[in-house]
Amino acid sequence: MHSEAPPILHETLGAIREILGAELDGIAVERAVVGLFFTGVELSNGIAGACATPIKTIPEAVCCPSSAMAMPFPGKLRGRPAFDTLAREALGDNGIRRAVGIAAMNALADTCWRRRPHPETELRLGIDAFDATEIRPGDTVVVVGAFVPFLRELKRRRQPFLVLERDPATLKPEELPFFRPAEQATTVVPEADVLLITGTTLINDTLEELLSLAKPTARVTMVGPTVSLLPDAFLRRGADILGTVRITDPEGFLDMLAEGGSGYHFLGRTAQKVVLVRRPAVGAVAA
User: Hey, what's the torsion of the CAs at 260, 12, 203, 153, to 10 degrees?
Assistant: First the structure.
């Protein structure tokens, strides 16, 4: 079970309501897919959003009444109001329903960006969040969540790092020396010069604490399709770079998810990597 939804989700939904206003009343759900790896929602305005599917939140994943409430509205979503019916599910305590809600919220967040680009961030298309993160020799790098592309690149660069992860089984044998249990976050995170956090922390209610543990000089990157294109709430808590996706072919994207697709399948085909980078404050001096 989840505790109360993170304030970041509350604030992002509030920003969506403020930016889109009455336009929200005319935006409905077109299609929703809960895939094995990712969940996606397409809106009636042709914009789609995604979220990691928290498959481990379904204890037995069996077809029986006890698990039916994981998704109580299959077959009934098309045409329903995207914000009031679905995006608000992001605030719920059920993992799968929250994922569907976050996917709808992210589609609305992309809608917001197209209406009103964020003045404090620069949107870079086709850029990897890792490349946008400035990692210097000698930096202490902490990765929260076994995000395979980041771990692979860190190993390739021979950059020392630590991985905070709840499930060590997600790591390869050669990565286990870098593993630290998630319970050690309070001692590991404050030491990070560079903090790389997967967006799934929004689903499991750990993101707020992780961001609060980072030292003021840490360079913080959030990454994954679960991350929103509406950056205000993340920036307020110290995030510098948000790496996510923009879905370029919603129908094709959802078809891939429905057939068990992952990032390896949809990136560069039905979705592109995008990065939001915090603009330097006026008068700031580069380090």
Answer: 70
Do the beta carbons of residue 225 and residue 51 sit within 8 Å? yes
* DSSP at 83: I
DSSP SS3 for 22: helix
* Element at 185 (helix H, strand E): helix 185-188
Tokens at 89, concatenated:
């599910």
Q: What pTM value is reported for the model? A: 0.89
| Distance between CA atoms of residues 80 and 85, nearest Å | 6
pLDDT digits (tens, 9 = 90+) for 39-65: 999 999 999 999 999 877 665 555 555
Query: Can you give the pLDDT at residue 254?
Result: 97
Burial class (CB in 10 A: 0-12, 13-18, 19+), 208: middle
Rounded-to-integer distance, Cα 25 and Cα 123, Å:
27
Contact status, residue 244 vs residue 38, Cβ threshold 8 Å: no
Is 163 within 8 Å of 152 (Cβ atoms)? no
Distance CA 80, CA 195 (A): 39
Handedness of CA 76, 269, 165, 208 (dihedral sign): negative
**Alpha-carbon 210 to chain mean position:** 14
